[in-house]
Design goal:
Layout: H1 19-29, H2 32-45, E1 49-51, H3 54-60, E2 64-65, E3 72-74, H4 78-81, H5 99-107, H6 126-134, H7 157-168, H8 172-182, H9 195-202, H10 206-216, H11 229-239, H12 245-252, H13 254-258, H14 262-269, H15 273-284, E4 306-310, E5 316-320, E6 328-331, H16 332-341, H17 345-379, H18 381-386, H19 396-403, H20 407-414, E7 418-421, E8 424-427, E9 435-436, E10 445-446, H21 447-459, H22 469-478, H23 485-494, H24 500-513
Parallel strand pairs: 4-7
Antiparallel strand pairs: 1-6, 2-6, 3-5, 4-5, 7-8, 9-10
Length: about 525
């Protein structure tokens, strides 16, 4: 067989993941906080980029590209929602359009005469009131303020204890031991240190360490420095002078209390049912995590990415939250002026290219979020009107097919994004639930709606008629929901609802003495 060399021309298509494409995908799934951090890093690297202040958003910069974050859509007209003609304007304006100057004139941003010289109060128009609100702490700079600046500083658990230690332990050696033990506390207020290791590390006697620990266990909050749940409850009961022998045996058998084994507890404690119920009521008033009332980290409020509100025509108005949109400016005039004198034209051209790419990526990100959110609102219209019982089964493929996008794109959009509705704040993933079969081939039911029905059935049961999992299956079947008993048990356990036997014991006990 002869060997020969031949040339062939072959044409094929392939998807190449460029760095910019990968970064665009990452932008899509970023939260507001992550996106702000990312843009901040880009602004530091790129001299042509800067964050827009509130005054700049109102149109005071005619020589820069600005964005219009007034995307909005009605949930009942998907075909018209994302036509470019429906947008108030292009997100980033060109400096030659004159829109910035027009907005500046319409809003009348000259606020110098808000307060007259004579000091007499006068009515201010809406733009003037907005300026006053935004310029409270900034004065002439017009800087907006953050409400978090007015929040009192949080006192940590360690600071709270360190304020009490000098009054309880005057000796410096005891304070050294106490400080070491304070450092060994966990967030719940429990001591996780081994006393023998403490003795070896500090070179103190075991008696001194135990004496200091006994003193620290008398500090506020009650139950602090406990080494177990039983000891935590014991400390609090001793401070209330309620730690008698019967209570001691109850504390030693908390596992029986967790199982609602009241018969065994009555026998071990030597009390009747009424006394046992009183003891349980006292225990339920104690704090099993005394350190939990102190903040260990700054909690951040969730900012909705989408706001849904009813429209005047009965439909739903879907809008991007302007506070969750990053405001970025690209200075074309600065590029033009610097490029005339600078020798590094390649660097400036790259900065301009990166800046334009970022603005386009942010524009596409906002439009994609709007498409997904509007389709979710259209699919879950009954939920917004009637509540969780009418939450429809929904999956990513249904939304992706409706808006002509890939499922992975919808998945990224719904990750860590929140929607503010008249029924509360929900993560976008909340609206995606599996379908539960209906009886006789009817419409499927959302798994979240089924869980809600199970929760309502159990909360409404009486002590003498506690529903078993089989009873719940029969009740749901009567309502048109086909569900297996093991699925009911799985949903019940996921909601931390005990079995029917445990609920019967607890409800009967509560019925005799009333609610604790």
């Amino acid at each position: 067989m002869a060997l020969s060399a031949n040339l062939f021309l072959r044409q094929s298509q392939s998807l190449v993941m460029t760095p910019q494409l990968m970064q665009s995908i990452q932008l899509l799934q970023m939260t507001h906080f992550e996106l702000t951090q990312f843009i901040g890093q880009e602004v530091e690297k790129n001299p042509l980029l800067e964050f827009a202040s509130n005054d700049e958003d109102m149109g005071s910069h005619g020589d820069r590209e600005t964005k219009d974050d007034s995307f909005e859509s009605t949930g009942d007209s998907r075909d018209e929602t994302f036509d470019s003609s429906d947008l108030a304007s292009d997100w980033y304006e060109n400096e030659n359009t004159g829109n910035a100057d027009r907005l500046n004139n319409e809003l009348d941003t000259n606020f110098s005469d808000v307060f007259p010289d004579d000091g007499s109060p006068q009515r201010a128009d809406a733009p003037e009131l907005l300026s006053q609100w935004k310029s409270m702490p900034g004065g002439e700079a017009g800087e907006s303020f953050d409400l978090d600046d007015f929040v009192a500083g949080q006192v940590s658990l360690r600071d709270h204890l360190n304020e009490q230690i000098p009054f309880s332990l005057p000796a410096m050696g005891d304070r050294l031991i106490a400080q070491h033990l304070v450092d060994q506390l966990d967030d719940a207020g429990y001591l996780r240190a081994d006393l023998n290791e403490t003795v070896e590390r500090l070179g103190s006697a075991i008696g001194d360490v135990e004496r200091v620990l006994a003193t620290l266990q008398l500090l506020d909050p009650p139950g602090i420095f406990a080494r177990s749940l039983s000891e935590c409850l014991e400390i609090q009961l001793r401070q209330k002078d309620r730690f008698d022998p019967a209570m001691e045996r109850l504390i030693e058998n908390l596992e029986l209390l967790a199982r609602r084994d009241f018969a065994s507890l009555k026998r071990l404690c030597g009390v009747d049912e009424e006394d046992l119920l009183d003891m349980m009521a006292e225990i339920r008033q104690l704090n099993p995590k005394p350190g939990s009332c102190f903040e260990t980290s700054v909690s951040e409020a969730i900012m909705p990415d989408i706001v849904v509100r009813p429209s005047t025509d009965g439909s739903w108005l879907v809008e991007l939250n302007p506070d969750a949109l990053p405001r970025v400016l690209v200075s074309q005039s600065y590029f033009a002026s610097v490029s005339k004198t600078s020798q590094d034209h390649a660097f400036l051209s790259e900065c301009l290219q990166n800046a334009n790419w970022l603005t386009r990526s942010l524009d596409q990100r906002a439009k994609t979020i709007m498409k997904v959110a509007s389709e979710i609102v259209r699919q879950q219209d009954a939920f917004l009107i009637h509540g969780v019982d009418h939450l429809r089964p929904l999956n990513l493929k249904t939304v992706a097919d409706a808006i002509k996008m890939h499922e992975s794109t919808v998945s990224r959009v719904t990750s860590n994004k929140y929607m503010l509705t008249p029924r509360g704040m929900f993560e976008l993933k909340y609206f995606f639930t599996v379908s539960i079969s209906a009886v006789e081939g009817g419409d499927g039911h959302s798994a979240e709606a089924v869980r809600h029905k199970i929760r309502l059935l159990i909360s409404g049961e009486s002590p003498d008629a506690v529903l078993s999992d089989d009873d719940i299956v029969d009740t749901l079947k009567g309502g048109g929901i086909e569900l297996a008993r093991r699925t009911v048990a799985k949903y019940r356990e996921a909601m931390n609802i005990p079995s029917s036997v445990q609920r019967r014991r607890e409800k009967r006990a509560l019925a005799k003495v009333g609610s604790f």
